[in-house]
Amino acid sequence: MEKLTNSYYFDYNATSPLSPSVEDYLERGDFLFANPSSQYQLGKKSRSIINSTKDFLFNTFSLDESINQIFFHSGATEGINTLLFGAALKAFKENSKLVFYFSPTDHACVVNLKENLSALGHDVIFMPINAQGEIKASELIKEINRKKADRTIINWTWLNNETGVVNSLSAAEEIKRETNTEIIVDAVQAPGKVLEWRELSAKLDAYSFSSHKFGGLKGVGFSFVKDSYDYSPLIIGGGQQNKLRSGTENPMGVYTTELAIRDLIKEFSLEKINKMQALKKDFEKIIISKFGQGSIVGHSAEFRNINTINFIIPSIKATLALMAFDLEGIQVSSGSACSSGANIPSRILTALKIDDKLTRSGVRLSFSKEICSLSSEEKSKLLLKFEEILNRYKN
User: Fold this and answer.
1) What whole-number distance in Å separates Cα of residue 35 and Cα of residue 30?
2) Is the Cα dihedral 115, 117, 118, 123 positive or negative?
3) pLDDT the model gives residue 6
4) Close Cβ partners of 224 (under 8 Å, ≥ 6 residues apart)
5) Are residues 182 and 275 part of one domain?
6) How far is CA 191 from CA 68, 100, 108, 209, 285, in A?
7) What is the pLDDT of residues 75-125, one digit of tens each?
8) Starting at the edge strand that comes first in sequence, how are the strands of the sheet with 2-4 ordered?
9) Radius of gyration over every alpha carbon of the chain, rounded to an integer in angstroms
10) Is residue 200 domain-resident?
């Protein structure tokens, strides 16, 4: 949560402020502008920064560089599209058919691929989930083994951006072990929001991240992918990044990714985690006292992250609630897409089979380690202000 002038920022799952080291770097103005494919000294300096960031990322996430590659891109939307649609395109060229499994609560960059994947002749099947949004692993294993496709790919959302519900990597490992399917992981929301965010499973096939979710620049991201994962790149050109993603690389953006993760590692202490979890409980106590435990989406899930609360205010549409919070200096968000003031039902809440009357009333709080900088008095005032807003809609 970022404390601004008379304002509190509770929308970290959408984007985060720049981390301190990134801000310092931008203020210094020592920018890497040269093309990293150039052979002169400035170009070599840009290449050196990209290579050192690659090494840092492999070490940070403990993945084996001998069987994995990493490529940088514009963000996880591009990364996930490359891994999913790229596999579909490769199969289409070879006149073969794939089966994809998505969760109905996956990000739009996954769910909205269905039409294009189907147009290439591939099957897209939505995985079974429970009322919390957790994937029913045993049912999925049976379904995959019954289908017996030549090649099956699962998109696995580690942490849902809207609800904070976690589908563990160990569950994904079990599915892979029992079905021999390939699993790519949407890891966008994981850094700093689950305790084990650096503990990637070497058994899974790919991971995608967006730098702006943890303090880097927007328009930058990276994906790990096993050498064995077969796909066609979507961006074709000069063959940069081992032909995984052509186009002139962005050394400045890549470097801010490393800086932001270094800051996150340094600041991700047990003390701060405990403070974040304590604040989350304080907010949830207030919500439950007004609207009941059932108003918190995913409250009964086995694993939830440490920074996200999605709750339903039954008596009001989310767009109006967001305005009320904003006028009081509290920046929150809604899972529903709003256009020209129209309040559209949340796709995620609909997928969780929440009553149609309530799918327009979801409000999301997502905060970060910056909450630890607030004094006890400031936290008390914030919680009181939050409760006063909810009191308007209690009945």
Assistant:
1) 15
2) negative
3) 65
4) 57, 61, 63, 68, 69, 70, 200, 206, 207
5) no
6) 20, 26, 20, 9, 26
7) 999 999 999 999 999 999 999 999 999 999 999 999 999 999 999 999 999
8) 2-4, 7-9, 330-331
9) 22
10) yes
Domain count for the chain, please give it.
2
Contact 57, 187 (CB under 8 A): no
AA letter at 280: K
Backbone angles phi, psi at 186, to 5 degrees: -80, 100
User: Which pLDDT does position 279 carry in this prediction?
Assistant: 92
Q: What is the β-pairing status of strands 338-339 and 342-343? A: antiparallel
- Identity (one letter) of the amino acid at 121? G
* pLDDT score, position 372: 74
Say how many CA atoms lie within 13 Å of 331 toward its Cβ.
Answer: 17
d(CA 274, CA 306): 9
Residue 23, domain member (yes or no): no
Residue 364 has a pLDDT of 96
Apex 90 CA angle, 142 and 160, nearest 5: 50
Choosing from 266, 297, 321, the residue where a domain stops is: 266
Domain end, chosen from 241, 266, 291, is at 266
Q: Do 262 and 273 sit in the same domain of this protein?
A: no
**CATH number for the domain including 212?**
3.40.640.10
Range of the domain at 44: 31-266
**Closest to 254 measured CA to CA, from 11, 44, 43, 56:** 56
User: Which residues in the chain show pLDDT less than 50?
Assistant: 1-4, 336-340
> Cα–Cα distance between 347 and 124 in angstroms, integer?
18
**Burial class of 180 by CB neighbour count within 10 A (0 to 12, 13 to 18, 19+):** exposed
